[in-house]
Structure formats: C-alpha cells, structure tokens
Amino acid sequence: MDNKKVSLGFIFVALLFITSSARSAEFIIQQVTEGRGTEYNRSYSLNENPGVTRVFREERPSSKIVTITSFSTVHTRPVPYESSVFEAAGYKWRLVLYVIGKKDDGGDDHVSLYVRIEDTSSFPEGWEVDVDLKLFVHNPKLHKYLSVTDGIVKRFNDGNKEWGYGQLIPLSTFRDTNEGYIVDDTCSFGAEIFVIKQAEVQEKVTFINNPANSVFTWRVEHFSTLQNKYYYSDEFLVGDRYWRLGFIPRTSGATLPIYLYAQGFKADAVVTNTYGGGNLRLKNQLGGNDRQRYSAAWYPIRSGYGMGVSSIISLKDLNDASKGYLVNDSIIFEVEMVKVSVTNIVPV
C-alpha cells in the first residue's frame, strides 16, 4: 500500500510540472495603463512569431484606420480587403487585410495584415524606402489598440512592395467575443508608418590633448586692497570655447581658491557641452615650486559655469613673504589646458 501511495504521489507531481511548464510557455502581453497598474493578456503562444511584440496602447494609429461593419458578412472570405490609398510619411500606401489569414505567409488560423506601397512608377531605379512599421487591431472592450511590431526595419523596393504580419492575431482570439475585438459585428485595423531617412551627417566629439595656446597667465595686482568678492581674468580661447579664471581673495576657510570658467563659443563653433581639463597654478615668483592642482569637468553650454579648487594655498602661506607667492602685493595665476573637447558636424 505504501508503495502505491508513493507511485500515485509521483504521478501527481509529474502532471503538475507538465501543466506548469505549458503555462510558462504562454506569451504574456503586458499592457501598461498609466495610474492603473499592469494588465496581462494570455492569448498568445511563444511559438507564434517569437520576435513579434504585442502591446496594448490607448493612442490611435497615426497613419490609417480601417473599420469594417457587418464583419460576419466577410469573415470567411479568402480574398483580401485592400483599403483606399492613403498618404503617410510622404508616400502612398494601402492596407491589405486577410480576414482568414494569408496561407503562404504562415497565416493559417490567424488574421494577416500588410501595408503595400503604391504609385512607385515614378520612383528612380533602385529605389528603397525603409520603414519602422506598426500594425494595429482595435479592442473596443478595453478602449485600446493592440500594437504589433517586430522591431525590424522594413525595406520597401521593387522586389518587396508589401510588408506586414501573417500572424497578426489568432482567429480564435480575434473571434472570441470575450476578448473584445469584435463588438456589434464591427472591427477596426490600423497602421503606423515611420519612414527612416538615414542620417548623412553626425555630431563628432573629439578630445584634444595639449591644445594650441593652452597656457594663460593672469597677474593680479594690489592684492591687499581687494574686496571680498569674485574677480575674473580676461577671456582666452582654447579649442572652440572662451575661458577665464576667477577667484575670491578671502574665504571663511582661510584658503585661496582658483576656478576655471567656461564662457561663450567662437563664431563657427558647434555649441554643445564642453570638456575642459587643466592644471591650475599659483606661480612662485622667487623661483620656487608653483602650487598646482588639476581640475576637469564637463562644462554646460551656458556661460559662467566654474570648476576648480577651493584651496590652492593657505592664506597664512600666501602672506608669508619668504614663500614667494605674494610679491610686491601681486600674485600670478596660471592655467595650462591639458585636454579640451571640440565638436564638429561631419559625414557619417
């Protein structure tokens, strides 16, 4: 008896594992609704177009919507419905709908939907139109559209004027009144066509080490008479941008700071964020060692943004005449720009 119980228990566990595995193979369509959490639809299998993404959204398709009333009249017809010509992204198109599936494109037991480019006779030889394509099925019950896409750019040309999805939606799901795609014998389909025009130029950011005219020196005289406010040097050009030094002579920390500020751009520059890195120095005027600190930052587009060091020297050491940094009531700041970025628009 005990052996029979063990055998029955093993069979039950095995059946449970098989059932769980089958359920895990379902393709869960996640529908994100703002402010209402996440909804799920379990109507699709991973075996059907595993690269295709199906997501519900509230927004209507931007290019074309076709609504069919009295759908039961045509729901078993093998001949495709071809919509009127519509314009999208500068080209003319038609929607082509197979209500019982396009058999030669894996559409058995599915609705198939395609977009076909029209009026191509005037196009130049070798023409190509690259499209990011989304096709839609309206679900009035949910007040949403099922968006279907595979993320692959569709290249329309003389050899391929029609693209779409043979397995847009299973017929078993589409015809199930509980699913909500057919309401009052009416259904709607749509398309969203975005033509991809490949960029011919690119923005290229280049870092220049040891750029030309990289050293700027600033003598500050009458140091003892300076007030407790910020003072700034003249502007100097390195790379595509103007820079300046700035400091405040007295701080609560009893140290002397020095900052590098990014200012405006030269006339022909591409205006973007700019990287600037440099050695900030307080020069020793008696031949001794300079005080030096390195500072680097991404500087924003706006002028007047400064980065640097809050202490290049203590005020005690600065005012010690034997140290050689304050001579004849003057100090000398210097910056050596070690690396800057420049941006150019160049062909791809």
Describe this structure in words.
With 348 residues, this protein is mainly β. Helix content is 9%, strand content 48%. The strands form five sheets. Strands 3, 4, 9, 10, 11 and 13 form a six-stranded antiparallel beta sheet that branches. The protein is elongated, with a radius of gyration of 35 Å. The termini are far apart. The N terminus is likely disordered.
- Tally of strands: 23
CA gyration radius, whole angstroms:
35 Å
Strand content: over 45%
Helix content: under 10%
What's the tally of helices? 3
State the separation between the terminal residues, measured CA to CA: 78 Å
Q: What is the string of helix and strand elements?
A: HEEEEEEEEEEEEHEEEEEEEEEEHE
Mean pLDDT value: 88
Shape: elongated
Structural class: mainly beta
Unreliably modeled segments: 1-49
Keyword list:
about 350 residues, mainly beta, six-stranded antiparallel beta sheet, five-stranded antiparallel beta sheet, 3 helices, 23 strands
Draw up the topology in text.
Layout: H1 2-24, E1 26-32, E2 38-45, E3 53-57, E4 64-68, E5 81-82, E6 86-88, E7 91-98, E8 110-118, E9 129-139, E10 144-149, E11 154-156, E12 162-170, H2 171-174, E13 187-195, E14 201-209, E15 215-220, E16 231-232, E17 236-238, E18 241-247, E19 255-265, E20 274-282, E21 291-299, E22 305-314, H3 315-318, E23 331-347
Antiparallel strand pairs: 1-2, 3-10, 4-13, 5-7, 6-7, 7-8, 8-12, 9-10, 9-11, 9-13, 14-23, 15-23, 16-18, 17-18, 18-19, 19-22, 20-21, 20-23
